[in-house]
Backbone:
């Protein structure tokens, strides 16, 4: 997988998961992020990063290629997702501020000195974005490494089978 393909794939994933996030927020704006909901959301994302790593390592059989691709795809995915989440928070602030998982943020807002909840929420989301991108990229590198390892093992085994078959035919 080339760098540009990885970027495009990350952008596509970011758009798909952002749409999922916005639609879920519109359907059930006060729904909590339960472990099951988080698994349903992030599980397919991590699987896609693993597949991207496998695709990248398929030709070279280098696990490092999978790790790099996984990290890049994850970074782009989360850059798009973070931008859309910030926009969603701004568009749906009145409803979002009533969510149970926002209670701690609301307590911190009251003692923050900010006069605007919107400004405070943006401050929190923007200052948290670099860490989220770093964590997502690290998880992407791990997923890509797993995919890269699986692809390298698969293609190495196929190569051994092909070599063995060729030697068997030559002996006949």
Residues:
């Amino acid at each position: 997988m080339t760098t540009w393909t990885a970027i495009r794939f990350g952008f596509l994933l970011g758009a798909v998961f952002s749409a999922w996030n916005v639609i879920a927020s519109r359907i059930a704006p006060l729904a909590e992020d339960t472990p099951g909901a988080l698994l349903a959301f992030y599980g397919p994302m991590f699987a896609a990063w693993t597949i991207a790593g496998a695709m990248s390592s398929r030709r070279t059989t280098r696990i490092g290629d999978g790790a790099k691709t996984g990290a890049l795809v994850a970074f782009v995915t989360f850059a798009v997702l973070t931008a859309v989440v910030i926009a969603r928070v701004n568009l749906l602030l009145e409803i979002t501020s009533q969510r149970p998982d926002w209670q701690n943020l609301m307590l911190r807002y009251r003692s923050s000195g900010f006069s605007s909840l919107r400004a405070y929420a943006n401050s929190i989301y923007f200052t948290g974005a670099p860490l989220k991108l770093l964590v997502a990229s690290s998880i992407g590198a791990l997923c890509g490494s797993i995919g890269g390892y699986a692809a390298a093992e698969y293609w190495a085994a196929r190569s051994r089978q092909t070599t063995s078959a060729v030697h068997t035919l030559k002996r006949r």
